[in-house]
Queue: 4 jobs
Job 1
Amino acid sequence: MAQLTRSLTLLCSIVLTLNLSLASAFVAPRSSCQSPRIRKEYGSLSTTEKKAYISAVKCLQSKPSKFPAGMVPGSKSRYDDFAAVHINQTTSIHLDGIFLGWHREFVWLWETALIQECGYTGAQPYWDWPKWAHNLSSSPLFDGSDTSLGGDGYYDGSFDYYVVGVKPDGSLDTVPRGTGGGCVKSGPFKDVMINLGPFEFTLVFTGLPSNWTAYNPHCLLRDLNQFCSERTNQTYVDAALATTTIADFQDALSSATSRLGVHGNGHFALGQSLQDFFASPQDPAFFLHHGQIDRLWYQWQKKDFQARTYGNNALNGTSTIFDPPTAPEVTFDTTMNWGILGGTKSLGDVMSPTACGYCYQYQ
């Protein structure tokens, strides 16, 4: 299977290179996807399906890390490996031109690990934000039941708000806190310890410290936050899908001008562990959150598939956070990597869920 995937990726790269060399409009690589994985909204899963997904996540938490001994002391499990790769690449894979493509592959690698390493027979579910935007605590994802991803945290009264930026006048831009803030108090991940971080956002300006790989076990934190959750409702999703340029779509997902965008508000809706800009994959909700982002990207692409997938409205930005003017613009040949999780691919390889070795769709 691994050899087949490598062969398909190589073939896709050759076809894409040929297509991009043509003066005419780009042509999408031929799809080899015959039996796609069907990704479903988490609430639509049966009790058996929810428990199977949770069991597979716990399986990755129990399997040893694949990092060479001593390289990343804080990565104790395969679950941690995903967080470590994300941490190490954070300033290259956010708020730039490879954010969407890099995370598409990241979720695919996670889903594949669940299947190949833990015997999971389903596909990666997603968190459809608008369904639960008005009441996170009663959603099947976060109600604290044994089929949820864990409920709220214990109440921590030591803070009143979260800082999300700085206003033009120099004052702090904040959002209100949620109803928890402490360790997850119910559900299958109640006793989970996460091993890397936490990291301050300001590290995006200074770089990670040399000891970022250190083992630092601490509990999974949750702070269900209705203020932020409301900003992922259908109105905001529709506004993102109504954008007509990739630049505006990216801005609707992650933007200071819209107070975090739907992507950022999803992270802040769950509290400190998912808010951690570097280490957020340590919250099991991360992969459902990014499944939704990938789903919206594909819905947006399909509105003008050729132009938005392989054409002149498909890419925008650089491969450096905040897209500094000195950084080169990304192209379909821009190379990305996922370290020990999955090697390298070009942006051209990750533009469609049904080509270049990918084979999935959303229900």
Job 2
Amino acid sequence: MKLAGAAAAEMPVLFCLSSGRLSYQQLVSRFGSQATSRLHNDFLQGINLVEEIGKEYDIGQCESGYLKLAHSEKWYDRLEKSADYLHQNFNYNVETINKQAFQNDYVCHQKIHGAIRYSNGFGIHPLKLVHAYAQKAQSLGIKIYTNSSVTQIQSDSNHRVTTHSGSVTADKLVMATNGYTPSKMASALQHKILPVLTSVIVTEPLTNVQREAANFKTRQVMMDTRELKYYYRLLPDNRILFGGRGAITGAHALDPKYANRLLHELKNSFHGLEKLNIDHNWHGWISVSLDQMPHIHKTKNNVYYATGYCGSGVSFTALAGKQLADLIVGKDINSPLSTELPHFPFAPFRRLGQRAYYQLGRLKDAIG
């Protein structure tokens, strides 16, 4: 993560969600009902694993609830049908909230047409979660080495991993770097992921007058249904975290237009926040796979990887870590996700494809 105006210890809450980028109808179409049922249980297990570590360590877990917001009337109808589908086919209850009820009971959002609520999503503090994982690992006798970025991987009968300060040789290699995997380094993930920048702003604390004007009554995590999504929530100190897409390339990541665009959208979404300013902002990479699904896989020469979380990595990584461990000790994880990542066609031109996708996304979002 690259931060501006904030120390790393102040990084606010990110999201632990119960669903990925694809709808359940799309999952059933791709994998079938039985495999999707397994995926559904895996999604919930991932959240439970994060909750379990939260019982042992402080991860900054906040109010439960993930609100998916319809940015058009057509999308509210889709969300209603999605909620019915989940109840009928997976015995999974999702609450439907119309526009008036949402504005009265959650927040007076000016640009949505209703919402659905998953009860088992929540916010966490990412640095606290990282520390919790580190403490858990160290309690099991694992040594953690920092400031040792990998510069080269050589694989034959064993794997030799070279860093700036030394090298390691092992018979099994785990790659768990997701969007931060070096694109030019030869590896099992080369040309198989698209690192995508996301930008986040955190405002100054809302005054009581501002909070009442916006009718902010919830600290639950929120994300809209746009193709180019925005996600946000009210933090424990009454700041608003607001995120969305960033620059196409890292060279332009710090351009202030991306933070300003987020602030503009925030002010247009809520009453009474016209004078609100940004206190902190940062950007970071997420990993997108060609099929928009995460993959947990073992290659023929004992490289193990988990990646492609498409922005839902807080819960998926907890699950993937457990399944990777099972693979390493020779267990069959029997998951629809246990397949090799597909290659991006014409991989050197992925950024051109991303630009075209963003243009199409803007058009789709404009027409609802």
Job 3
Amino acid sequence: MDERRTVKVSKYVSKHLRHQPERIGLVLDAQGWVEIDDLLGAAAAHGFPFTRAELDHVVAANDKQRFAVDGTRIRANQGHTVPVDLDLPPAEPPAYLYHGTVPAALDAIRAEGLLPMRRHHVHLSPDRETATRVGARRGRPVVLGVAAGAMHADGHVFRVSANGVWLVDAVPPRYLRFS
């Protein structure tokens, strides 16, 4: 499968497993899972057919490991705007995590901290390199340090998704390091 097709299928699957399953008639279960055959059938019925082999390639080749497959089911690992409970247990984070953003967002972040916006959680990266890539998707990246260990000690609950993205409800400004 060529790179263009891989990206196109990945974006289509992300859109419908994270944001608009109803648009193609999918119903996610409470944890965000859907039968792979249902996804393939719905995509084909709505004018975007792809094969199980193409889907398996997208799952395996995705640099961010956005999807999880469990037997005959698939789900997005995080980033949902539709109601799901990923059923991730609380986890103790490292002392510092990182968040990639763009300069235009800094004033709001300084005032309000990091908020989930339309998503369920704030997404944090385990290293600066990953946060830089995340921030670069929307322009020149700025990487913020997050005192995750201090937040955890103060009672904030962290969870980590299957692909290593750390999730938290919000990050108050006092835990942010602007460099």
Job 4
Amino acid sequence: MITELALERVHFACGRCWHEWSVDYDVQQYRDDQGSDWEYFSRDGASVPSPYTPAGAVPCPVCGRRWVGRILARRSIPTAPGPAETPRESVLDAPGHRPERHGAPLLGATAHGQPRQPGPPAEHAAVAAAD
């Protein structure tokens, strides 16, 4: 049973080239039949390991080094059915229900504005000036 749905924006900062970027992940928490709680991550519809663990560390788009992320922002998504007074619509014709959604472009995990890139740290700037 799904116990929580959320969208999490994860921030990454490369410790090698200082590039910063962020990625949106869909997160589901669920409880299995034995009562154990699990977390499931996906990005652009594909299952991925948790970006908060070494196994899920993503490569820097500039230099390729892998970095574990940290949460930047989070939005919970209410799970159904919700309270009785929650607005909802009955789906009478499932195949024909809102057909435009099937042709809508996918919202990519990196479709949002990326963090502003600061200049290199002072010690790197001093080294570069000395060269």
